[in-house]
Every structure is written in C-alpha cells, then in structure tokens.
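Suppose a classmate hands you a notebook page containing two proteins, each written out with its sequence and a corresponding row of structure tokens. How would you begin to make sense of it? This section walks through that situation. The first entry is reproduced here exactly as it would appear on such a page.
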Amino acid sequence: MTTGDIVKPIKTGKIEKVKQAVELATDAKRAGFWYRGEPREYDEPLTPVVFRSEWRARGLALAKDLEQFFFHEFKRKAPAMITAPPNQKNNFKWLLLMRHHGTPTRLLDWSENFLVALYFAVRDYREETGIVWAMRAAGLNLSGCDKHKVLDERDYIVQTLVAEAAGGQLKLEQKQKLELLNYPPAFKPTIHYPRMRAQYGAFTIHRQNIGYKQINELLPSPREWYRWTIDPDVKPVIESQLAAMGITEDRLFPELDGLSESLQREVRLKEQFASKAEVYARPG
C-alpha cells in the first residue's frame, strides 16, 4: 500500500465556521494528519524561523551562524533564569526549551488537533487571510527516511539533527545519514511542558539544505497535504466560537502570561462584536 492510496481526498477551500472545521478534522484524523495554523500568508510558509530569509540575511551580514549563536547563547544564559534547567549535555531538551520560549530554531510546530491550528490561524493579523495546513506525518517520513511511522526523540536521525543544530562533531555515519536526508522528519517528543500537552504538540525538524523548501513542495502526493484559508472578516467569529469550546489563550498557554493575554483578547472580542452590533442597529 502506497502513501498515495491510503488517504482519500479531503475538501479544501475556505473555513467560515468551527462546525466546518470539525467536519474536516473528522475526515483527516483517520489518516493521521497534523495541522499548523499561520495567521497570514507568509512568503516562506512551513519554514522554521531560523531558516527564513530575514534571519539568513542577518546571519550573512553579521558573518555568523545564527542557529549556533542562538543555541549556545541560550544554553549559556538561561540557567540563571530558570529553576530547573536541562542537563547541559541534553541538547534535545535545550532545543525544545528554546522553541518553547520563542527562540528561532530548526523546529517547526504542528498540532494533532485541527482546532488548535485553527486558533493560531485566526488569533493575529486581523486584516489578513489566515491559513491552516494539514500534513500526513507518516507519509512525510516514508518519503524522507523510509519509515512509515511518526518518529520519537530517540530516533537516530532525530538525534543526529539535534546534534547538528548544537554544532556537535558528527560521526561519519551521521554525516552520511544527513547527506541522504532530503525531507524534514516528523516526530512527537516526550511532553516536557504544559503548553506542549495543551496544544497537542508535534514537530518537524529541518536542516539548512532542505529548510528553505516548503513541506508541500517536498511531499510527493497532493493527498498528503492540504491547505485552507480563513478570510479576515470571519476571524473574530471563529475565535469566539473556539472560545465557547474552550480553545482559548489561557488553555493553550497554561501559564500566567497566557491567562493575561486571554483576558485581554476576551475584552477585544467583546469590543469588536459590540461595535458591529452598533453599526447594524443604526437606522438606514
């Protein structure tokens, strides 16, 4: 059985309400899709932050490998700011911690929950079109490293990519593995942080020679990935519907910062709907 014949076509197009997203998610869940929400149309979608052109240009200007700079400076300075830092030798946990706090890394965030991705597609850039991507993770791995399954953090290729990110000395076998790798592996890590659990978090891990290509360009079959758009005018409506289902900032970021942002978003949403109601109430 090939990757192309185990996934039936799923309807694409625009998402206008949460009910529609639930129906799409029901179809996609059976095939093992992961989802990613982006609040606007990026020039380089599905690309890890550290490999996007803005950071590449900065690295060239500074004559620095910015991935290495971020990694080593974060590891050097973070222990003074947290109570239980990872072991200095555990580069995998350090990479997750960096991504957890927004440092540019070679990790690209995904979610196993369609509604979580939908939330991230509507939460910001209210005047721009949001995007939800779906990717069949096992299909990506079958195409890229001949493993028809989702990997975990113990997998040899994942650990090799982490070692490369940390600037470690790679063995000859590891270098040969990377030379053959032309897809970013999809893996699910051990859940170390509450927001990873809340967001049903998963990742693809990239490297520079493939980090500049979009995943939808790498996957061999259009049935392995999908893309939906959300028009700007329905973003507040969908966010309100998601909130009614418990998909809110404080649930996805279960820390004090998430609670604070959630309260502010609640006020902004009420303001938006109040202003619309006032417009509709005016006599024509």
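The notebook's second entry, a different protein, reads as follows.
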Amino acid sequence: MKKNKKIFLIFFGIMIAALAAWYFLKKKKTAVLQSGSGANQPPSHGGNEGSAIHSKGALPAPTVDAFPVVLGSKGKYVKAIQAELNAKHGAKLATDGILGPKTEAAMKKAGLNLPVDLPTFNKFFGK
C-alpha cells in the first residue's frame, strides 16, 4: 500500500472512532437527564427518610437549613423542632437534626403536620 493511502485509512479510522464515542456519550448524557438523576437530586439520608407522600400529593424535596421542613430534611430548624418536642411534649427524641419517622410521629402527636413552613414554625414556638 502506498504511504498516503495508509495515512488516510488511519486518519479515517480515528475519525470514525471519535464520532462513535461522541455519539454514545451524547446519548448516555441525554438518557441521564431524561431519567431525572443528577446533581440536582437531593442526597439520600439512609434509613431516616421515608416516603414523602402526603394525602394531598407529593411534598417538596427534603431541605437543609431551609423551609419547608419535610420528612428527610436536616439542620438547625429540625434540631429546634426536636428540642421543643422533647422539652414541651416529652418526645425523648435524639436532637440529631434529621427529620425521620420518629420525629414525624412525635410532631403528629403534638399537632404539628408536615410540611412545616416559616409561619407554622413560628406559631409552634409561640412567636
């Protein structure tokens, strides 16, 4: 084979491989975006979270130090709710700042339903 023909075939083969790799990577990225998994998903909190389904529909995603506070939320607002439930309602919860099933049950017993927004939070604390 001539030298120019070999160079052309090698170049052509590399271009075909690059094009195929680009196609499959683009297809994979599109599938990931369509499935909804990615960086915008809330992290899993192990066994502390349950189903975030409310009788009126789906609740917002769990938050960290933000409102609304829902099952799976974490942070200072959850710690404050847990401490208040322990102090005024005898809940005996760990004040770990993770709203799990035990915290949810104690909240229901105290008359505090999910989701908890800022006005509900302030009302619970008598503000």
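A careful reader of the second entry would note: The chain has two domains: 1-35, 59-124.
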